[in-house]
Structure formats: C-alpha cells, structure tokens
Design brief:
single chain; 6 strands
C-alpha cells in the first residue's frame, strides 16, 4: 500500500514526497479513512512508529482540503493537539513545521494572561491539559472557547487521564465533543486503562 493508493490530495502528496515518505505505516493506513469519515478513533502503536506523523498527515489533509465540521469548505479546520506534558506538545509543534507559520499556535498560560484571552487566531493549536484546566477563579480556560470551536482534536498518549473516567481532564474532551477526536497511545489495552477504549471504541490497530 502506498500513499497514492489512499487517494490523498495533491498538496498532501507533494508534501509527503518532499519529506521522502511513500508508504504509510499500518496504523496510518487504518486511521486515515476513519477520521475522514468523521468518527472518533483510537490507535495504538509503539513509540517511534509514526503516531505524531499520522497526526501531521491527517491535519495537513484536512487543512489543505478546507475540511471542517460544517463540510462547506468555506474555512480551514481548527485543529487542537492535546498532550499532558509540555515536551510532547513542543515536539508536536515542531513536527508540524511544514504548515504556514501563522497557522500554528502554541497555547500557554503566560500568553493567555498577557493577552487577557485565549488565542483564536490560528488553525493548528497545541496545548497541554493542565493549561486548559487552569484559569482565574477556578474557571478553566477551555470554557472560553465555544464547544464547537475545534473541528478535530488529537489526544497524544490518550491513556493518561484524558479519556479515563477517573481522569481530571475528561471534561475537556466531553466539552469539545462535537469535534472528531483521535486518541493516540503506545500503551496496549489492559484493565487499568479500559475507559480509554470505552470512550474511543476498540482500537483500530
């Protein structure tokens, strides 16, 4: 299976060719069609097998095709990459460097406090759960966005709290439930993270 056989659009095909990629990994092949159909999905893959790159690929395709929840093509999608550690959010931000500079936004508490509002002037947003949970007077910052603001949300290491019924951050995902949500993890399904798979459905890989 090659990327050409996935019927990806020309801008994405050129970007992949420029990066030297010709064949998708198994998880990339499985996840692409599901996300494009608008369903939430979870993918499991070992560290180093392409989870961040599949997130980039899908985000790039959605961005270039102007896909959004309205499916009207009138605007580019608003995409959120959520992680639980700054280093993961920073790594993803850097990995998405092929996007136009003004499309990428790194959300931090200091920037929000300095500007007095959450950023809305971009297309691809990167944040950690803790930033969204912080806010003045115990009011979480994520509530400053309309619940349907984001079209697509990528949750890195989704087994660590975000989709867990006992996790403090589950409310963020539920608040943004109109968005298509892609959970990525390197941790296989087991009893102590069963809620992750209950939330997203059975892993596709």
């Amino acid at each position: 299976m090659t990327f050409d056989q996935l019927n990806i659009n020309s801008p994405l095909a050129r970007a992949l060719e420029d990066l030297g990629y010709t064949h998708p990994t198994t998880i990339q092949h499985r996840v692409f069609p599901i996300v494009m159909s608008g369903r939430d999905v979870c993918g499991i893959a070992q560290t180093g097998t392409g989870k961040t790159f599949i997130a980039f690929q899908i985000a790039w395709k959605l961005f270039q095709s102007r896909w959004n929840l309205s499916k009207d093509g009138e605007r580019r999608p608003r995409i959120l990459f959520l992680a639980d550690r700054n280093i993961l959010a920073d790594q993803a931000f850097n990995a998405f460097g092929a996007f136009p500079e003004d499309a990428l936004v790194r959300i931090t508490p200091n920037d929000i406090r300095r500007k007095g509002e959450v950023p809305m002037n971009g297309s691809i947003f990167f944040a950690i759960f803790q930033t969204f949970m912080s806010g003045p007077n115990d009011t979480p910052y994520y509530g400053d966005y309309p619940s349907d603001y984001f079209d697509f949300i990528i949750i890195d290491e989704c087994h660590r709290g975000g989709s867990n019924d006992e996790g403090n951050w589950r409310g963020i995902l539920e608040y943004f439930s109109p968005a298509v949500q892609l959970g990525l993890t390197a941790t296989p399904k087991r009893k102590d993270n069963i809620d992750t798979y209950k939330y997203f459905g059975e892993p596709v890989y």
